[in-house]
Amino acid sequence: MSFPLIITQPQINPEDLAEVQAYKQSLHKAIQNAPPLPDETLARAIALRHNLSKAPFVSPPHPEAQNRLISTGNGEINLHIITPETVKGIYLDIHGGGWVVGNATMSDRIKLEMAKTAQVAVVSIEYRLAPEYPYPTPIDDCEAAALWLINNARSEFGTEKLIIGGESAGAHLAVMTLLRLRDRHSALDRILGANLFYGVYDLSGSPSWRQGNDKDNFDLTPTKMEWYVSTFLEGIPPQMRRNGSYSPLYADLHQMPPALFTVSDTDILRDDSLFIATRWAAAGSEAELVVYPELPHGFTLLPLAIAKQANGRSREFVRRLLQTD
Q1: Residue 102: DSSP 8-state
Q2: Domain that holds residue 259
């Protein structure tokens, strides 16, 4: 059975678009006087992590969240868990940050809304980061966390209903985790759906990435993307990137769960979502692509009305998955 690809362009109020433009201008001004980043890879990664920790959109850790260390074949990793009073499912969250920056607590404000509204325990993975831990360690950590949940969901949370989600590099890791669950463990049927925001699925560079604007210095640019990917894929030749082991766009996507893909029409990773959503549906799985206008990469983390709209739509997607199973 084949499923259609649904492409949605939400209705946006003019005042909300004006808010986006004002926010972009404020970011431009804030970055004009920022000191240059170091050239050396590790020093640059450390500086980027420091800058992210001070970003206004990064929320403090939720005071009632719990942290759980789990053992893997490659060391211990931490799971950051927000549990609502009523748990109808589990949302496995994989943060973004180009495989180099970010952490499991940085969007607790948004995850708390997901936990309360969709009645899911949100389990965020503190996967290890490049350049200290390049490919395949971040994927290994996400695979291990997903397997731990599959094996322990009932005893830990009282439910076996699992949904996976991620943004940017986290969306890439989420799809790679789904592929490993299918190919290595025959466990893909345990995942009800995938909630994926502005992911990078072609590490060789989709057209919108390659045609992006390097002058838009506050946003994701082609040069920045190349640095992130090269740091993550340390030692892997560029000609190998069009391989399903690295870029899920080139993988066999049969048997994937229903997916919601969210992106902006001005994101340099726009084509990544457009292309993989098309392949997702062509392989016989449900796929909806929602395209929002004129927003920077990572927009769902920002204090914008359109971001609230997109996050609300993703929570509704999660609720529907839990109701239909």
Answers
A1: -
A2: 5-27+39-324
The domain total for the chain is: 1
Measured CA to CA, the distance from residue 283 to residue 175 in angstroms comes to 14
**Do 87 and 154 contact (CB within 8 A), yes or no?**
no
Residue 73 is classified by DSSP as: B
The alpha carbon of residue 136 and the mean position of all alpha carbons in its chain are separated, in whole angstroms, by 17
Distance CA(63)–CA(84), nearest Å, equals 13
The CATH number for 115's domain is: 3.40.50.1820
pLDDT mean values, one per 10 residues, the chain (325 residues): 83 95 86 86 96 89 95 91 97 98 96 97 98 98 97 96 98 98 97 98 97 81 96 96 98 97 96 98 96 95 96 98 83
| Number of other CB atoms surrounding residue 38 within 10 Å | 13
For residue 100, give the 3-state DSSP assignment: coil
